[in-house]
Specification:
This protein is of the alpha+beta class. It has 2 helices and 2 strands. A two-stranded antiparallel sheet has the order 1-2.
């Protein structure tokens, strides 16, 4: 059994390090966010709430390093 919630938490922490204070929140969405669905695709879908969209590009390079 794959623990999607654990994978999500790991990715969330990485993103928090990249975006720091610009990040408002991160949400786990999609099929892997439903506990015990049994047929989720192997992709963690996440929705990021970001403070200023105009500055989002500043983190492009750091995202590629993840």
């Amino acid at each position: 059994m794959i623990l999607w919630e654990e994978s999500y938490r790991n990715e969330k922490e990485k993103l928090k390090e990249v975006f720091k204070e610009e990040l408002v929140d991160i949400f786990h969405i999609g099929s892997t966010s439903i506990p015990a669905i049994g047929f989720a695709k192997p992709i963690i879908d996440m929705l990021l709430a970001y403070l200023h969209a105009k500055t989002l590009h500043r983190n492009d390079f750091r995202l590629w390093l993840l």
